[in-house]
Amino acid sequence: MTAVHFIERLQALSSAEEAEKILRYFKSGDGQYGAGDKFIGVRMGQVFELAKEFIEMTPDEIERLLESDIHEARAGAMSIMDKQGRHKKTPDSRRKELFDLYMRRSDRINNWDLVDLAAQYVVGRYLFDKQRDIIYKLAVSDSMWERRTAIVSTSYFLKMGETKDTFKIAEILVHDDQDLIHKAAGGWIRQAGKTNKSRLLGFLDHYAAVMPRVMLRYAIEHLNEAERAHYLGLKNR
């Protein structure tokens, strides 16, 4: 199960027409967040199905996939990492290898879909019973993808009923200058609010007037009409 073989299989699935669609979807034009990314035109569903066949791939081969300039190859690498991270029988030693690989090669995890594929189970699950200082360092990184990793990784904590880190990371990101970070932070505190609504309302009481509008709208999506109007009103003052 090698990176070379995986890429050969990917190329057999590629479509120039699909590549054009994907390029627009991932905003790869000049000046956009995905500028310069190379797509060969494989649907993500196909990438994920292929990743299932390569679930036993070693971390060394996964790293070779991450080194590819083909976006779908890197998505495949992240999908394989995610599948290994999710598997109950994955040993702790492999979980550490996957976490270390994610941290070491975060330069290759350079789009929102790549972050979202693996941050929960590769980063969050690994850190669940450990010190979590690293995600606070990621939250203030110059890399928007590392900042996104910080908030998305807390998905696993939310799954386990813990909301503290999600709100604390969102507090760090409340003045971020990137739309993709606003959406992630707002969406994740919305999810945290399902477990701890009072904490969400407290966060909004403090930050609704100053947080980016898109972050606020994502955060209040599941509140009732009166609550949404109240917090939007704070923003409009």
Automatic annotation (TrEMBL):
InterPro entries: ARM-type_fold, DNA_alkylation
Xref: Pfam families: DNA_alkylation (PF08713)
PANTHER family: ARMADILLO-TYPE FOLD, DNA ALKYLATION REPAIR PROTEIN
Protein name: DNA alkylation repair enzyme
Species this protein is from: Dyadobacter psychrophilus
